[in-house]
Amino acid sequence: MAEIHVIISSCDRNVGIATALRRKPVLVNFTSKLEQTMADEDEVKLFGMWASPYSRRVELALKLKGIPYEYVEEDLSSKSCLLLKYNPVHQKIPVLVHNGKPIAESLVILEYIDETWTNNPILPQDPYDRAMARFWAKFIDEKLLMTTRKASVASGKEKEQAIEEITEQLKLLESELQGKEYFSGPSIGYLDIVASVLVFWFGNLQEALGVDMFTKEKFPIIFGWIGKVAEIDAVEVCRIPKEKHLEYIRTRLEAFKSASK
Amino acid sequence: MADELVLLDFWPSPFGMRVRIALAEKGIKHEYREEDLRNKSALLLQMNPVHKKIPVLIHNGKPVCESLIQVQYIDEVWHDQAPLLPSDPYQRAIARFWADFVDKKIYELGRKIWTTKGEEQEAGKKEFIECLKLLEGELGDKPYFGGENLGYVDVVLVPFYSWFLAYEKCGNFSIEAECPKLIAWAKRCLQKESVSKSLPDQEKVYGFVLQLKKIFGIE
């Protein structure tokens, strides 16, 4: 009986089942506990880039679920052979590699994480609520972030128009958040993870562009949400060092301007 | 309580076709309503105020928008009949990846082919074929992307087959010559009633594209 307890407690402390069995070679039928520990021995690697909100959102999901992972920083001007091997179609980060199997596209990765590690679920259970969460995630990626990209490289009237569009898009997000603690409801979830781009990245970008439209006065509900979300420990992983980020944005914009001349 | 399902759609829309196929595969009764996109109904604007686009699936009065989201919703609600997404999380991720790829590439490249000319059109054709070849690679020797049966990626991609004649005529090239495996796959899908009843005739779509070109003054 004592031997069984030792092995079970070894599993609980995540010593590693191989080590535990070497110490106490006892065959006990506790399959589900064994499977749990084997899952804990998963190899999770994330190929990412420090300034990418898509990469940061995957890290946030991993952190919220307490999944240990190895982070590999990619130099996007000189992509590693491994990245090109794991994502030959788009050759982009983030790529999650789970026990050697790659998954690309941040929203696909988030759903994979939720379905594989079922603790602390990030997507709602109800199919309609899931559809709504997916709808707004798509809106953030395909509308807000696309328009933001357009605004970054545009000038004059085109830039003004893009900024107006962003304002309208943020207003829609503001009303989606109305009456809720978080985008996902009473606790942080998938849509908050996708919207985490607003917590640090968005404000940095605004400063780099010399624009002042994303303010507490204009978007009190979103800023209220930012305040709450920023207090969550795991969200610290989304913080992008401001000065470094401003420098990075300015360098990229310069490169873009000289390339288009 | 009987489910009330309404689909707001437009006959040549490949996005609408995806939803039609999913509903048909699962034998789900619904009301189909054709929208005039030059004169959108009050219901459409009310149910999809953000994008004002079709298709919109209205389930017991609640709208679901965006075709990939609608197909997944249908698969989750009516999960017992003809499942479209696999049950394994990794296989699901692969399916979602390729559906996302189709969404990012095929529609825009196809559009480039029928709306442009010269160098721009050539570039569009080249990339379009490259994308189809990547999809052929993913299909491999399987009868369907979903394996032995029609799956999520099949439903997402096959609607574009109804536009292939229009692309070929406007771009003056043969898709079958470059991607015979994909054409064989599409014809296999069309053997299924859920697909053949959801896709319009290629000639009809080509006629529609010619009309659009006239309206927009595209040669």
UniProtKB/TrEMBL annotation, chain A:
Reactions performed catalytically: RX + glutathione = an S-substituted glutathione + a halide anion + H(+)
GST C-terminal domain: residues covered: 126-253
Top-level taxon of the source organism: Eukaryota
UniProt record similarity statement: Belongs to the GST superfamily. Tau family.
Signal keyword on record: no
Stored Gene3D superfamilies: 1.20.1050.10, Glutaredoxin
Molecular function terms from GO: glutathione transferase activity
GST N-terminal domain segment(s): 42-121
Keyword Mitochondrion on entry: no
Transmembrane domains' residue ranges: none
Enzyme superclass (EC): transferase
Name of the protein described by the UniProt record: glutathione transferase
Gene Ontology cellular component annotations, sorted alphabetically: cytoplasm; cytosol
EC number per UniProt: 2.5.1.18
InterPro entries per UniProt: DUF7962, Glutathione-S-Trfase_C-like, Glutathione-S-Trfase_C_sf, Glutathione_S-Trfase, Glutathione_S-Trfase_N, GST_C_Tau, Omega/Tau-like, Thioredoxin-like_sf
Sorted UniProt keywords: Detoxification, Transferase
Gene Ontology biological-process entries: glutathione metabolic process; toxin catabolic process
Automatic annotation (TrEMBL), chain B:
GO term, biological process aspect, one: glutathione metabolic process
Family matches, as InterPro entries: Glutathione-S-Trfase_C-like (IPR010987), Glutathione-S-Trfase_C_sf (IPR036282), Glutathione_S-Trfase (IPR040079), Glutathione_S-Trfase_N (IPR004045), GST_C_Tau (IPR045074), Omega/Tau-like (IPR045073), Thioredoxin-like_sf (IPR036249)
Record Gene3D superfamilies: 1.20.1050.10, Glutaredoxin
Enzyme Commission designation: 2.5.1.18
Annotated GO MF terms: glutathione transferase activity
Major location (coarse): cytoplasm
Segments forming domain GST C-terminal: 88-208
GO cellular component: cytosol
Catalytic activity, as annotated: RX + glutathione = an S-substituted glutathione + a halide anion + H(+)
Database matches in Pfam families: GST_C_2, GST_N
Alphabetical UniProt keywords: Cytoplasm, Detoxification, Transferase
PANTHER family in the record: GLUTATHIONE S-TRANSFERASE U19, GLUTATHIONE S-TRANSFERASE, GST, SUPERFAMILY, GST DOMAIN CONTAINING
Biological role stated in the UniProt entry: Is involved in the conjugation of reduced glutathione to a wide number of exogenous and endogenous hydrophobic electrophiles.
Family indicated by similarity: Belongs to the GST superfamily. Tau family.
Name the UniProt record assigns to this protein: Glutathione S-transferase
Gene transcribed to yield this protein: LOC18594547
